[in-house]
Amino acid sequence: MATTSAARRRTPAARRNIVVNRSWLKSALGVAILSVLLFPLYWMVNASLLPSDELLRQPPVWFPINGTLAGYASAISTQGPHLVTSFIVSFGVVTVTLVLAAPAAYALAQLRVRGGIPLVLVLLVVQMLPGIVMANSLYGVFNQVGLVDNYIGLILADSTLAVPFAILLLRTFMHGVPRELSEAARVDGAGYWRTFWSVIVPVSRNGLITAGLFAFLLSWADFLFAVTLTTGRSFEPITVGIYRFVGNQTTNWNGLMATAVLASIPAAILLILAQRYVAAGVTGGAVKQ
After folding, report:
1. Closest CA to 51 of 38, 65, 36, 34
2. What is the pTM of this model?
3. What pLDDT shows up at residue 152?
4. What is the structure's pLDDT at 241?
């Protein structure tokens, strides 16, 4: 009771100071947490600009005053083809994922499909399968049909993970699209495919961008399928290229860190450009429109 009375006796200025102090405390805590999370990224960039002999100096060099771009030159010359390979595979996975997942999600969300709920459960179970089990199974099949060391094989392998996730994501989003829109199109004489392309796809733009971005990031960062389904004779994605580079260049740390920086740039740019679509796409299915 005494505490309540004291709180009521505080002046508006005192209450304002308490609010400001709490805001500063929250901001300081947020900056501290963000600094811890971003420190590995900062050190990766810092190490990529330092000569290899300075990385082991004590005390450590926190700012690359005498920096060098030799690591980036080495990374581009040795890892450039791997980056191109990852771009080809990732864009292929995005294409396959959207072509298959969007119509499937439309059917599950807007149409009365028999066995729709069991199919959703199957898609959820697929997400729980260990990656090594899927990689070993796909290797046995792809080796027989000649898809090992093949772009199509790697695209299909990564799509086995991206497509189920995209279907579940887009299904949730398309549930929020009012059925009146598709019903009005049907009344006007549009078929299911015309309704899908002319009505559902335009209003599902945010969800499609989100699904495509996740498919790109999943395939770009994939290592298990990449190392299982490639032998290095014809091509290797950047994840496997970094893995081989670590084994062959244990003393060239600035080149290794430069390779990691280059591999992180495409994903970071895509996330920055598509962040507002991702936010809308992830939360779009949570509220009925």
Report:
1. 65
2. 0.78
3. 92
4. 82
Q: Which amino acid is at 72?
A: Y
Domain 71-284 of CATH type 1.20.1740.10:
no
Reading the block at residue 231, the tokens are: 């032998």
C-alpha triplet 247, 252, 253: angle, nearest 5°: 90
Instruction: Round to whole Å and give the CA distance between 169 and 16.
Output: 43
Helix (H, G, I), strand (E, B) or coil at 224: helix
How far is Cα 277 from Cα 129, in angstroms, rounded to an integer? 29
Q: How far apart are CA 94 and CA 86, in angstroms?
A: 12
CB 221, CB 239: distance < 8 Å: yes
At residue 289, the pLDDT reads: 41
Compute the Cα dihedral for 174, 175, 178, 183 and give only its sign: positive
Q: Mean pLDDT over residues 185-195, rounded?
A: 75
Which residue is it, tokens 């779009």?
284
Is the model's pLDDT at 3 over the cut of 80?
no
Helical segments of 50-130, H only: 70-110, 116-128
List the chain domain ranges.
2-39, 71-284
Q: Which amino acid is at 70?
A: A
Token readout for 256 is 């290794």
